[in-house]
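Priority: medium. Attachment 1 of 2:
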């Protein structure tokens, strides 16, 4: 394998169609698409300063990378990529990618990142930015943190463990999602989604968990959460007091306490939902 070391490379398509290279301690300065159509690369301690560095690439292993803010839209249409111990400062990274693993990666400007992608694996990743993970599928995330709105809109087959999420409108229009051992803060959680399960989570959400088909909460806490479960089918075991529940379609909700239960839609049969708190069963009308 040829080695490129301690270089400063400039110009458009600086290493176009590069393959079977080890690139280390190198800076890709100005010039778009420096590694477009590349394959079978090992990148170490390398910095990208300009746009579209890894488009249509394949079989890339990388560690200690730096993408500056100007390396925008950096990795699109690429497959079989592993990045560890790296900083990605640029937005709009990862579009239509397949089989991507990030481990110990920081993304402080992750706006519109991981769109329409498949087979994403995140391990100890932190991100800040809106519209993360839109319309992507087959996603696992462990020890994941994100601050930004519209998280995983339209995603399918998602499993998240040990996460801390601050996100308005997280998990909208999703299907087959499991979130475990996590803290979620944000308004309008989970609307229009199907087959979503939260296990051992702490959730704070204004008017959250509405318009959902088969939402399950197992040993969760709903803190400062009001108008929950409207027009949803629900199975929930809540280890806290819920501020208010409104117009669930059907299911079973058990909580330590419920401050207010609202059924004000005459088309909803209140008896289709069994709502219990520690003092006994309730059927609100």
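Attachment 2 of 2:
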């Amino acid at each position: 394998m040829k080695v490129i070391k301690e270089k400063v490379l400039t110009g458009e398509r600086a290493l176009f169609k590069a393959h079977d290279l080890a690139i280390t301690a190198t800076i890709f300065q100005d010039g778009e698409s420096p590694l477009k159509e590349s394959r079978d690369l090992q990148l170490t301690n390398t910095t990208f300063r300009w746009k579209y560095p890894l488009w249509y690439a394949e079989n890339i292993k990388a560690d200690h990378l730096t993408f500056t803010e100007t390396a925008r839209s950096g990795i699109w249409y690429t497959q079989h990529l592993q990045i560890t111990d790296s900083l990605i400062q640029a937005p709009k990274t990862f579009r239509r990618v397949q089989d991507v693993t990030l481990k110990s990666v920081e993304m402080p400007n992750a706006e519109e990142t991981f769109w329409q992608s498949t087979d994403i694996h995140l391990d100890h990743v932190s991100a800040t930015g809106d519209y993360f993970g839109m319309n992507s599928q087959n996603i696992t995330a462990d020890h994941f943190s994100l601050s930004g709105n519209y998280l995983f809109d339209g995603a399918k087959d998602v499993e998240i463990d040990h996460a801390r999420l601050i996100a308005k409108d997280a998990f909208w229009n999703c299907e087959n999602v499991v979130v475990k051992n996590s803290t979620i803060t944000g308004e309008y959680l989970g609307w229009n989604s199907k087959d979503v399960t939260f296990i051992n989570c702490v959730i704070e959400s204004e008017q959250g968990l509405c318009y959902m088909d088969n939402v399950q909460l197992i040993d969760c806490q709903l803190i400062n959460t009001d108008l929950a479960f409207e027009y949803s089918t629900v199975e929930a075991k809540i280890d806290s007091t819920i501020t208010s529940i409104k117009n669930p379609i059907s299911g079973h909700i058990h909580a330590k306490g419920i401050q207010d239960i609202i059924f004000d839609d005459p088309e909803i049969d209140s008896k289709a939902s069994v709502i219990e708190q520690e003092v006994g069963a309730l059927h609100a009308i």
